[in-house]
Amino acid sequence: MARLSPANVGIAEEIISRYPRPKSALIPLLHLAQEQDGYIADDAMEHLAELVGITPAEVLGTCSFYEMFKREPVGQYLVNVCTNISCLLVGGEELLHHLEQRLGIHAGSTTPDGVFTLEDVECIAACTEAPCLQVNYRYHHQVTPEAADALLDDLRAGRRATEIPKHGVLARVRQQIPAEQRAGNAVPGQSEEPVWLRTAAAGNGDGGQGS
Ligand code: FES
Fold first, then answer.
1. Ligand 1 pocket list (CB less than 6 A)
2. Where are the domains of the chain?
3. Which of 80, 81, 87, 128 maximizes ligand 1 atoms within 8 Å of its Cβ, making it the mutation to test the pocket?
């Protein structure tokens, strides 16, 4: 699958409605596409371009800027092991090698069943908790090889499904915003005021900022 599913199109339309300009929704829409397929395919970028009224090249320009957006398939669980200095000093590299052996892959690749992608990463800003890793960008601190094994077992068995969703992103693409608090789309050149501003101005006559 690459284009958004009908269910995700509904979510995308809700996301777009939060912004004064459809294209302002591009980042959360990219997260949504990645959550669906685990990466952002060319077809998905074309679909997003249609939804927000820009060119696929503009979508690619944004997508390719951010390292967290993947343009090649990755596993359901992206395991990032830090081997920078603090982690290196207390076993980060040994932890990475342990996981390579356990998964039967080298860092930078994906298990044949598509469940795990293993990456060797630079500092992930949890140096006081070294050695550490992330799974789908959720932190795990002071990880021993035994704890890493238990974590992989839990993930395979689905025991962490709520805490660590497959292909899960951290962006809150599913947050619910009441209709009256959404920005509403304005056609460029026809109105520079978002809907909430016009509504507030009409409602209290205080210049639109409310209280
Ligand atoms: S060196 Fe590993 S988190 Fe900073």
1. 82, 84-87, 123-127, 130, 132
2. 6-71+170-196, 77-157
3. 87
Q: Which atom of ligand 1 is nearest to the CA of 87?
A: 2
The Cα–Cα gap between 93 and 104 comes to 16
Is pTM, for the whole model, over 0.85?
no
| CATH code assigned to 6-71+170-196 | 1.10.10.1590
How far apart CA 57 and CA 193 sit, in angstroms, is 28
Looking at the CA of residue 83, tell me the nearest atom of ligand 1: 2
Is the domain covering 77-157 a CATH 3.30.420.270 domain?
Answer: no
**How far apart (Å, rounded) are the C-alpha atoms in residues 155 and 133?**
14
**Residue numbers in the chain where pLDDT is lower than 70:** 1, 171-211
Distance 139 CA to ligand 1 centre (A): 11
Give the up-direction half-sphere exposure of residue 25: CA atoms within 13 A in the CB hemisphere.
Answer: 28
What is the distance in angstroms between the CA of the first residue and the CA of the last residue of the chain?
A: 46
pLDDT in tens, 8-46: 999 999 999 888 899 999 999 999 999 888 899 999 999
Atom of ligand 1 lying closest to residue 85 CA: 1
pLDDT (0 to 100) of residue 210 = 36
Contacting residues for 108 by C-beta, under 8 A, at least 6 apart: 118, 119, 120
pLDDT of residue 189: 57
